[in-house]
Structures are given as C-alpha cells and as structure tokens.
Amino acid sequence: RDIEVESVTKMLACGTSILGVKHYTCGNHSCPHVKYLCNTCSCRACPSCGKKATDQWIANQQHRLPECTWQHLVFTLPDTLWPLFFHNRHWLDALCRLAVDNLLYAGRRRGVEVGVFCAIHTYGRRLNWHPHIHVSVTLGGIDDAGVWKDLSFHPSALRRRWMWNVRQYLLSQWEHTTVPPENAHLQSENDWRHLVLNAGGQHWHIHLSKKTKNGRKTVNYLGRYLKKPPISGSRLAHYTSGATLSFTYLDHRT
User: Fold this and answer.
1) C-alpha distance from residue 148 to each of 3, 25, 142, 143, 216 (Å)
2) What Gene Ontology molecular-function terms does this entry list (predicted)?
3) In this structure, what is the dihedral angle of CA atoms 124, 128, 133, 136, given to the nearest 10 degrees?
4) Residues 92, 154: contact at Cβ < 8 Å?
C-alpha cells in the first residue's frame, strides 16, 4: 500500500538532510559558531519518533482520566471475517464505533454515562492480520443528577450486542463491498447474508481483564500500540538482505 511505502521511506530518512535541515547561528554576528539539526520524520513507523510520541501521549492522557475503577476489554471477530476487513479497510473505523456503542448502551440502560477510550489493533503477535478492538471503560458513570453510580458489565450481554452490531453493519455494506479472493463464491446479496449471519458461530469473543484502580495501566499499554511500530527492535532476531526477517514473540497459547 502507498501508506506503507511512504511510512518506511520517511523512517529511513529520519534525522537526515533528506527531510530538511534547521540552521542555527549565534545572535552575535561576530560569532562563527553554526549548528545544523536534521529534521525528524514524526512517523509512527519510526522507533525513535514513535517512542517520543508515545511518552507524550501517555503523559497527556494521565491528566485526563477520572480516578475510578477501570476495566479493559478486547472485542474480537471470527477469523472467517478477517479477509473482508483486510480488503475493506474503511470498515475498521466502524468497528471502533460499534465496540464503544456496546458499552455506552449498557451504561445508558442503567441510567449512567460511562467513560471510554479505545484503539484498534490490526495485527496479532505474529504480525498476522488480526483486527480486534481494545477498549477501556470506567466501571461506573454519572447519572442525570450528576451522581456517580458503580456498575459492572455482563460478558454474555456484551457479546450478543457485539455480534448483532457487527452483523447489521456488514449486511448494510454489500453494495460497497470489495469481495476478497477467499470469498469469491459470494455472487449475490443472499450469499452475503448467509455468510454474515452464520460467520463465526461461537467464535465471537470479548475478553474482560481484571479491574484496575485507575486507567494508567491501560493507557501505558495502549500507548505502545498507538504511536509506535507494531514490533520493537529488541524482538528482531535476524535479517537476510531483503529476503527474510526473523523475530521472536510470546505465544500465549503454549
């Protein structure tokens, strides 16, 4: 994709004269001292710029979060739908909105407005395509009278609404869908409805983490993914002249 080529190009040029140079001289015209500073790329693909942006983002968020109990959730999709989102990337924004709507809806049913922030991840630990949504939510909210009320979320209810939300969205997208090679058998809207309504079976999961006393832990976790490359340099093991890149990862299933 063009954005990938652009990001890598910027990263490789970071800190070089390719991106421009700032020229600093002394205010004293008789002083011969001159300092040149090459511009940075400010690209998320860059480990150096990404680290700085991550630290700044985390620091800013820490002052915005309410001091209350938080819970982190991960909304996943059945793998049969992954190729569809790969070839229709504009749907990814809708996934975030649907996940957030799930929690806002649950809060409003109990008469409160909860606090939410989320981030989409499009890759797994092996850097494979795996779109899923990370969401942090306050375990409580403000009612119409401005009074704080505690609440908890029921996984089964969240899962049912998540499935319904995503399926209804996908059903509305048939006319604008780019059909991937894996789904070449889809020839009509009826085929599309059958796929969407039967996708995944029980493989629609929402993972609820342990509750935390504040949102700082989640902010630190999400910050690493929002502003930095998907893999850190410390995990890179071996590179063979443009052909093979080896890296390490933790397989939580083994």
Assistant:
1) 44, 57, 5, 6, 20
2) DNA binding; transposase activity
3) 20
4) no
User: Cβ atoms within 10 A of the Cβ of 162, count?
Assistant: 23
- Domains of the chain in start order, with CATH, are 2-38 (no CATH), 66-214 (3.30.70)
HSE-up (13 A, CA, CB side) for residue 24: 5
pLDDT in tens, 216-237: 887 887 777 777 777 777 787 8
Q: For 135-146, how does the pLDDT look when each residue is reduced to its tens digit (9 = 90+)?
A: 999 999 999 999
Question: What would the two tokens of residue 9 be?
Answer: 């190009």
Instruction: Look at strands 148-150 and 129-142 and give their pairing.
Output: antiparallel
Round to the nearest angstrom and report the end-to-end CA distance of the chain. 33
